[in-house]
Design brief:
By secondary structure, the chain is α+β, with helices and mostly antiparallel strands. The chain has five helices and 13 strands. Helices cover 22% and strands 30% of the residues. The strands form two sheets. Strands 1-2-3-4-8-7-6-5 form an eight-stranded mixed sheet, with helices on both faces. The protein has a five-stranded antiparallel sheet with strand order 12-11-10-9-13, with no helix packed on it. A hairpin with a 5-residue loop joins β9 and β10.
């Protein structure tokens, strides 16, 4: 493990969550006060062959990022983490982890927020009452090693929201009184992630798909899709397929499946 990665970092003796849970022994946490990007840190660790279920968590990120190279506002008081996995499933299915992660985050939020609408938005956002509270970024760490890995980066707004953002945003503390510990949310999220991950690895995507659909944002609503040439078309959002692809119907009812792309909910 490179010394540069461990500078200002420490193996974590993580405190208990609000319900008294501690992390399973197989999860190894590296906590950092400040870093550029936890996903970049994890990519370096993956290149060095670090064990699966290693997590990098930072109090602050200076170069946090989301999909399509967008920056992720990373203020102290929120959760920023990256998890390394080597799933025992066909690599073609690893993209399903994006939706699994959203389900895990939504389940976690239910532990802290009562009587609010918690939804998942394709492909990797989590919302409360239509406002973005979390984002997920999946990246494959394939460095010509025998066991390629996937990095799951997660950001959750706990006590602060970005000052400037293209969508409405919110945080956990907007819906409850008192202090919400970042460590508590962190531990709860990893417990939920382990739960859903084992279901997915052992039994497939079906249960994940059902839970995701139960929380789907604007199911049956209109979306705009932009192709590689910049052309836009409008569709009806009909859900997700068994591989996590979004299902869209055009004005004539013809169905399309999209695995990636720019989709805007109208």
């Amino acid at each position: 493990m490179a010394k540069s990665l461990l500078t200002n970092a420490r193996k974590s003796d993580v405190p208990r969550s609000s319900d008294g849970k501690r992390l399973p022994d197989f999860i190894n946490v590296i906590k950092k006060e400040c870093t550029g990007s936890t996903n970049e840190d994890m990519a370096l660790l993956a290149k060095q062959g670090v064990a699966p279920w290693t997590v990098v968590q930072a109090l602050v990120q200076t170069s946090g990022r989301g999909r399509h190279g967008k920056s992720w506002d990373s203020q102290i008081g929120n959760l920023f983490m990256s998890l390394l996995l080597r799933p025992n499933v066909n690599r073609m299915r690893w993209g399903e982890l994006s939706l699994l992660s959203a389900v895990a985050v939504a389940s976690t939020l239910s532990d802290y927020v009562d009587n609010q609408i918690i939804e998942v938005k394709w492909p990797n956002d989590v919302l409360i009452n239509g406002k973005k509270i979390a984002g997920i970024l999946l990246e494959v760490a394939d460095f010509n090693v025998e066991e390629p890995s996937v990095i799951v980066g997660v950001g959750v707004n706990i006590s602060k929201t970005p000052e400037k953002f293209e969508y409405p945003v919110t945080c956990i503390n907007d819906y409850k009184t008192g202090h919400t510990s970042v460590d508590s949310v962190f531990i709860s999220l990893l417990h939920h992630f382990v739960y859903w991950f084992h279901i997915w690895e052992d039994n497939g995507f079906g249960a994940i798909k059902d839970e995701w659909m139960r929380r789907a944002f604007k199911l049956g609503g209109s979306v705009s899709v932009e192709n590689k040439n910049g052309l836009k078309a409008e569709y009806k959002f009909r859900g997700i397929d068994m591989d996590g692809s979004i299902l869209l119907d055009d004005k004539k009812g013809k169905r399309s499946r999209i695995r990636s792309g720019t989709v805007r909910f109208l």
